[in-house]
Structures are given as structure tokens and as C-alpha cells.
Amino acid sequence: MVSFMLNGAQVQADPRWSLLEAIKFYGIYIPTLCYDEGLTPYGVCRMCVVEVGSGNRTKLVASCMHPVTEGLNVRTHSSRVIKTRKMILELLIARCPSSKKLQDMAAMLELKEVRFEPLNDDCILCGLCVRMCEEQMAAKAIGYAGRGTNRYITTPFDMTSDECRKCGACMYICPACELRCQGPEAKTTLCSGCINTEPVCAPKYGEAMCFMVPCLSCVKKPEDVK
After folding, report:
1. Do 29 and 84 belong together in one domain?
2. Mean pLDDT split into 10-residue runs, the chain, 226 residues
3. Dihedral over Cα of 192, 43, 131, 141: its sign
4. In which domain, by residue range, is 145 found?
5. DSSP for 62-94?
6. What pTM value is reported for the model?
7. Same domain for 86 and 20
8. How far apart are CA 85 and CA 87, in angstroms?
9. Which of 94, 112, 126, 215 could lock onto 116 through a cystine, CB 3.0 to 4.6 A?
């Protein structure tokens, strides 16, 4: 076991674990999109970002890819982390605003606006389908093609693959396949239909003081509701 600091508390974890696994073990919610417990970590979505280090020497890392090491100082809900997660999610929703998974996550993280023009794409390139097909279904029927902004997921040579068994596992795990409540012709980029309360302590203290999801710090008591 190795010891490290997690949100100001000294904890222990298995050295074979990633930071994400250790953080989840201690019951702290970390948003993820490209991560699945049954698949190899990929680290492409960056939603699981946390801040490591202390003082002025800190950096943001993808917790699903970063190993647990002795003496590490980790903050999971600092103001910098919260701001970064919102920006990443804002870009992802602009790419694929029809995804229910992204819209639900936006409500959970209290994302209030999307400042980028929507692309209305049907894929966020998380790679879950590719890894599912290869690692769990042992088919390797799909993969990446192209580079940069032209990258996409397809079958070999964009032709019907003989390796595909039509099992549907790729659709099952895809975060973009399930459509938001308003359907594909929604008038707004951001749903904002299930708003939660944002941690009010983060702006004052530089990080969240608790890790409830949603934050309960500013929920009104029944007697306060008129």
C-alpha cells in the first residue's frame, strides 16, 4: 500500500491502482466518458481530470491514466479542476448536443451555457466502442481512420466488416447513441432541464468543501419555501 493526500486527508491505496480507481474507492464522484471498468483506460476525454502537486507547482492530469504514487497530493474538486471540466464538457456538447449522457452530465456539473457553435456530430471519439469490440467481443470489427479533425470511427476500408457479429455492444456502450429528452431536433444546444446546485464554497475557498452529487449546500429547507 502507498500513502498519499486526497483532498487534505491522508489515505492509502494499492500501488497497482490508477488515481481514478483510488478516488472512487473512497467514494468521491469523478465524471468520466471514455472510461469503463471492463476496458483498458484510454484517457482521451479528460473529464476525469484532477489537480496534483502543491503550492504553485501543480498540474492537471487524467486520473484514469495516472498511477497512485507515494506522497502524491491530489485535489479532485479545486476551482481549477471544476473550471476545466466545464470547459471540456462545453466543447463536447458543442460537438454532439444530441447526447443524453452529455446533457445529464452538464446538469450535474452545473454547466449553464455553451459558447461554441454546435456541430451536431454523432460521435465524440471516446473510443469506447473500439475497445469494447476488440477487448470484450474479440472482433476488432471497427477502428479509427483519419487524423486530427478528420478522425472518425469506421470499419476497415469503410466497408461492411465480416468480423462484425451485429452484437450491438458498440451501441450499448456509446455515450452519444442515447438521444436527449427533446430528441434530435432540439432548439437549444444545452438542455438545462435538470439543473442541480453548484458548489457555493468553491469560489470562496478555492475548492469544494464536500463532494455530494448534487451539492446540497444551498438547497432550501421546506420551511423556507413559500
Report:
1. yes
2. 95 96 95 96 96 92 96 95 96 95 92 93 96 96 94 93 92 94 86 69 74 59 45
3. positive
4. 128-173
5. ETTTSBP-TT-EEESSBHHHHHHHHHHHHHHHH
6. 0.86
7. yes
8. 5
9. 94
